[in-house]
Amino acid sequence: MHFKPAIVLIDPPMSGSENMSIDERLLASAKPDWPIILRIYAWNFPTLSLGHFQSEQEVPHGLFGGRFATVKRKTGGGAILHDHEITYSIVIPADEQMGEKGPSERLYRSVHSSIRDGLRDLGLDAEFHENGTCTRDLSCDRDSFLCFLRRSPVDLIVNQHKILGSAQRRSRTGLLQHGSFLIRRSEVLDCLSGVHDLFASQMQPDSSGWTSSTVPAWSVEEWQAWTCGKIQRGIEDVTKCSWVDSELKDSSHILRFVEVGSGSTPAATDD
Amino acid sequence: MSIKPESLKYLDSHEWVSVPTEGSDIATVGISEFAVTQLNDLVFMSLPSVGQEIRAGDEFGEVESVKAVSPMYCPVSGTVVEIHDGLPDQLEILNQDPYNAGWIMKIRVKDESEFGGLLDWQAYKKLCDSH
User: Fold this and answer.
1) Number of C-alpha atoms within 13 angstroms, CB side, residue B56?
2) Which residues of A are catalytic?
3) Which of A76, A96, A165 is facing B68, going by the closest CB pair?
4) What letters, b where the CB count within 10 A reaches 16 and e where it falls short, cover A138-164?
5) Among all residues of chain B, which has the CA nearest to that of A79?
6) What is the per-residue pLDDT across A44-99, written as a single tens digit (0 to 9) for each?
7) What are phi and psi of B60, to 5 degrees?
8) pLDDT per residue over A99-130, tens digit each?
9) Which of A131, B35, B46, B127 has its CA 20 to 30 A from that of B119?
10) Residue B72 predicted with pLDDT over 50
11) What strand order describes the sheet that includes B15-17?
């Protein structure tokens, strides 16, 4: 069986425009014989990314006191404040099996399922919105300006709080999926809880006092590595890919490769 | 006059174009019923501008559904002469009638020979059936 090669890129924190430019270039340069790319990244300043059809004029006046940068995404959905969260992008070169219009429901569902199952293994009661009992009291409104106050069927919910959302863009060259996984409550936007806050709220007192046995005391880097592994499993389920230990460790390497214009693939095929 | 999907030409990315009638060089462009089904719950659409020149295969607009943005490609080269500017506010029309009331734009065709490179109904239907 032929497995499509896939590589992971881990990037240091960058500005919003740099991060979005990299994803756009990775999508634009995708070719059928190129590997699938999973990119995990962060932001060097709290940044509000607007969905493709949102405009800066729509940003609610006085939101978060204006203490953030803004950038437009090429993907759809609502605005996301990138602060104490993990952002990922997946670029899958065009493949007729993925369809050419509209969402890849399979990719949304597979990536989110993998993270949901991982959180359950850690003891957190995560579920898809479609299976939950979310009520309106947490502003579950598809027209909300903020992605994390909207709800769509495969959004990942913990105790009525949305903690993972993703969006996509199709092009002639492939499919781009963006996603954001909330780790901790942001000081800039404190109405949204991250997974760490929800673990803490789930702590129960026992005979010796509060127990934190189910709360992973992980650093951001550890959450990043955990999330990366779960997303990899989710991509594997959809694409039948094989992860290649590429020498291209971050996007600067692969973009340099693209700009050099080599005709060969940037990762060896693993048959 | 009602447009029948059997009379149209298609791109494999699911846009349709009507073949101009005798003595006319104006073609209507839209997206197919299959595309509308795939898109599922459309929420936004952007359109080109009247007077815009578009080459065959170029993007002429975008649609968003279920947080996914998808481009729409122009089947033949030409100049946009009319857009369905009420459509983005009534996207449900596409679910009801993608080939007539759900038309997206009309273009003045530059090169009629480009129709020869498009899929006819039978070939397009076969493509959809293979998905």
Assistant:
1) 19
2) 147
3) A76
4) bebeeeebbbbbbbbebbbbbbebbbb
5) B67
6) 999 999 999 999 888 887 777 668 899 999 999 999 999 999 999 999 998 655 45
7) -115, -5
8) 577 778 999 999 999 999 999 998 888 999 98
9) B46
10) yes
11) B9-10, B15-17, B26-31, B105-109, B78-83, B53-54
CB contact, 8 Å: B32 with chain A?
Answer: no
B35 touches chain A (CB under 8 A): yes
3-class state of residue A197 by DSSP: helix
Helix (H) or strand (E) holding A105: helix A105-121
Chain B partners within 8 Å of A172 (Cβ): 13, 71, 73
CB–CB of B80/B59 below 8 Å? no
Site of tokens 């978060």: A64
* Dist CA A218 CA A184 (whole Å): 11
Distance (Å, rounded) from C-alpha B101 to C-alpha B84?
9
What is the per-residue pLDDT across B73-110, written as a single tens digit (0 to 9) for each? 999 999 999 999 999 999 999 999 999 999 999 999 99
The phi and psi torsions of A126 (rounded to 5 degrees) equal -95, 145
Antiparallel, parallel or unpaired: β A126-128 and A156-158:
antiparallel
Locate the chain A residue with the closest alpha carbon to B33.
A101
Tokens of B83: 């857009």
Q: Which residues of B touch A146 (CB under 8 A)?
A: none
Nearest CA in chain B to A107: B68
Query: Contact B67/A100, CB-based, under 8 Å?
Result: no
Do B44 and A53 lie within an 8 Å CB cutoff?
yes
Q: Is B12 an interface residue toward A (CB < 8 Å)?
A: yes
Residue A25 CB neighbours (<10 A)? 16
